[in-house]
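Please check this one:

***
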Amino acid sequence: MTLASGSRLGPYEIVAPIGAGGMGEVYRASDTRLKRDVAVKVLPTAFATDAERLRRFEQEAQAASGLNHPNILSIYDLGNHDGAPYIVSELLEGETLRSRLAGGAFTPRRAIGHALQMAQGLAAAHEKGIVHRDLKPENVFVTNDGRVKILDFGLARVTQPEGPGPSATNLPTVTPGTEPGVVLGTMGYMSPEQVRGKSADARSDIFSFGAILYEMLSGRRAFHGETEADTISAILTRDPPDLSETNRKIPESLDRIVRHCLERSPQARFHSASDIAFDLEAISGVSGVMVPEVGARRGRPRPWLLLLAGVASAAALLAAVWIGATLRKPAPARYQQLTFRRGRILNARFTPDGQTVLYTAMWGSEPPRIYSVRLGSPESSALSFSNAALGAVSSTGELALGLRPRPSGSGLTATLSRAPLSGGAPREVLTDVGATDWAPDGQELAVAHLVGGRARLEFPIGKVLYESKGRVADVRVSPRGDHVAIADWPVPGDIVGSVVVVDRAGRSRILSSDWYDLSSVCWRPGGDEVWFSASASGLRDSIWAVKLTGKRHLVAEVPGSIRLEAISPAGRVLVTLGNYRCSMIGVPPGDTAERDVSWLDFSYPIDLSEDGKTLLFEEWGEGGGPRGAVYLRRFDGSDPVRLGDGLGLALSPDGQWVLTRLYTQPPRLLLLPTGAGQPRPVPAGEGLHYEEWGQFLPGGSRIAFTATEAGRGRRIYVQDLAGGKPRPVTRDAAVGFAPINSHGVSPDGRFVAALGTDDRVTLFPLEGGEPRLVFGADPGDRPLRWSADGRWLYVRSIEGATVRLFRIEMSSGRREPWKEPHPDPAGLMIDNTGVVLTPDGKTYFCGFQHRLNELYLAEGLK
């Protein structure tokens, strides 16, 4: 249908055509009632003959018309003309993002400005329950005054390909629908779940947003193939080339945002567009970068407007001077130091009167003790409880204690006990508890209870409200007792967590996600805001606040790390200040004494060549970044060489390759060359979630690794690097754990020494047969490496605050002391010690993690 100038569609008078395409024809028109220019899109008559499609179109157009946001095209009206539906929207002057991309990649600043506006528009729509489902550069419009507008929000799509042209995407838009089994979107910008025909929610728009941001920064599409099948394959199996390959300086923080949007698993992406907008604002340095004021106009101003503007400016200046003279700047936060010894504070809480603080600390090489300090006094005194850590303090003065704390696959667990603050023997309540808090009335306890390898939130004890596959690092009940805030690390073995709030009926929602080293959560008095300590990257924590609406702000950051411990009803805050580091000490080949061989701030040994001359290690913290970094060090006087991102797993027998695990979702295995060459992906096993242990088998052509599948427990797999499917070699859930840096494969390739589900060193046969315990290994031992002849197995043992290395004769079970490293005991996190050594045991390196901090009372934090 073609409309002539002057023709009418209801109250709208056609002025001139603007364009046409597979979605119909667009005209400039005049609204004769409101005397404004509008755009009228007349849709194909095929809509009128499909009752279901027309009904859906009308519903979605009505929903889109309810979106009132400056970054979303405003829908004014919906009508029908001679059997053809039409929609009326605001008239925009400018060009599509596709047209602007014809000029090549944007500067990072310009890309951030456009992306921030897109994210804000998406967030507004998603809050209304509306998902775009076809976000692409053609549906993003940039006005002449710099405003970004998202077009066609929530509208139905037709099956025909879009017409050719320089500003069109030469890939088809496919059939509409949101239900599973129906595909909707434009190939090249569709999420993996859309490509597979699965249900698409707001996270699908986030993937499409990431593809557009990638294209703005690189000047090329994130996923593109010669055929539709090639494009689908790229979306489902390949990451886009690194932005660094464009030879442009892309900020690492911006690259992380793009990668986080483009995760294949919806669960691994940003959980909301508002989170993306928050991160973009943070890296832009100015909120609302390149966003013009609403209603900005071009043209020469009239003289009376200039006079009025001058008067208004003078009035504003006088007002600003008066306000500045009468208002004071907010007072800075004040910190009062409460502890003075050298060591590590584990946690701290206020007592009911708010004038005494209880805390758990490890001073020097001493075991954990609970101490008490009165505010205003520099002296602390130890409580009488032994082998116990503080859990929480009730409003009635009762203590929740963790007796006999011990490491587990989900962090530290202990036996929960109750004891009066005034003194008395603890009464045991529940085993395998990771975190706890009291209800406001001091009667009920909320706990993170480890059951079957999963962390359950129970409140009260016995009533399950929430379950995590990973670890719940902290639990806090709201001041009204109607909600529980938790620090959830949902991926086993990962250090990325989310702040989650759960109500008494078990309904949960994520307030803020994707934080590194998320360690504690606290409610502000009033219960409308949760504070937490975490890091946006690395392990240097700051304190953040998030309202129940999801709005966040930074509360405090310091050089080093600041950790939140507790907030009193009066708003006073307990924090710890300090640093978190990992250092490597050991005896290089030819040396006789231990020395420090650390590189950056978090050096951790992973593997060692048989001659001891090549050390594989990784860096985390500020040096390695959130993805980790794999390094190789040759003891020839040269500096370490960075091989790539990820977690290092093993060095090949010939020293030519390093097996790594990438922190993608789902995780992938990759081979990095130690010299010249290109990385090689390891063929992925369908449905496997790769864990943090892997080794080369003798000869180097096969690998063994641990992984889980949906509905199954941890198993050991063997895979030929030349191809083929991974083959499980152990029973379901027979393997409890394999230390990251354990070189547990026997010299003949027949066994892997790992931990069974009973936490005992066990030999798992790789060619069939029953696993068997290693006679002579004690509970708590960790396997390290075999001697070259297979006679001995080296193990690591921890006794109190001491690390000892033993070797066990496999034929007799005879156990011999071998080495005893000597790290600095202050702040030592002894359970995280990693050890690598040569088959003769003479060359070894140990990674020791230290967290040194002091306890402070902070006032004035907001």
DSSP finds ten helices and 55 strands in the chain. The CA atoms of residues 660 and 796 lie 23 Å apart.
